[in-house]
Design brief:
With 234 residues, the chain is of the alpha+beta class. It has three helices and twelve strands, in the order E-E-H-E-E-E-H-H-E-E-E-E-E-E-E.
Length: 234
Amino acid sequence: MSSTVNVFVVSPDTRSERKYDLGLTVGQLKNKLELITGVPVANQSISIFASDDASEPLVALSDDNRPLGFYGVRDWQILKVTDLNPATSFTGQLTDISQVDKFELSEAEYVRRQEDSVLAYKQRHKIGRFADKAEEEPAQPEAVDIPIGARCEIETTVEDFKKRGTVRYVGSTDFAKGIWVGVEYDEPFGKNDGSVQGKRYFECQANFGVFVKPDRVKVGDYPVEEINLDDEEM
């Protein structure tokens, strides 16, 4: 049989799980409980309950000279400590808020404080997030000097490989912001037929059309390149 017992110690201000030797006398237990519960030894009345919702105690630890084992204390029972003279200690005062002074404002004082608050000051003077929103000026269109019908060369991410074609469109689009240049490639290196997301911007064969940003377009005298296939390639 185990010589120790696990119990829940409950007092007006505390609740904790503790382990005690069954040979510990009630008097010795009270000395330990004073440190835990704050209830002076002389004021302590200790009872054992079967559970938290039990209305009546199983037994009262009435004899300071008797060991815990004498009272048949078992694991996980409730060891309830009552303060017989709470007027001489602080027992219960930590959890009793009924006597705590409440800070109250009259309606007039509340309104005055609201008027004097930093928030109200910022609202009156339109500071920070209360400042008037400046009307956004419409974005100026990009200045792009790329004529429709001009021959061009498009830079690619592949070294020494550039695609040639003819400029077919310059302007804004519905699929992205800013100015875009629509190009009809000489070869089927493109991504569309001059239309994107159902809207047509120019006419060309499928996979010959592409839209690029103006900085990738180089206008000049770029003739159509002939593709020569080696005899070994088909």
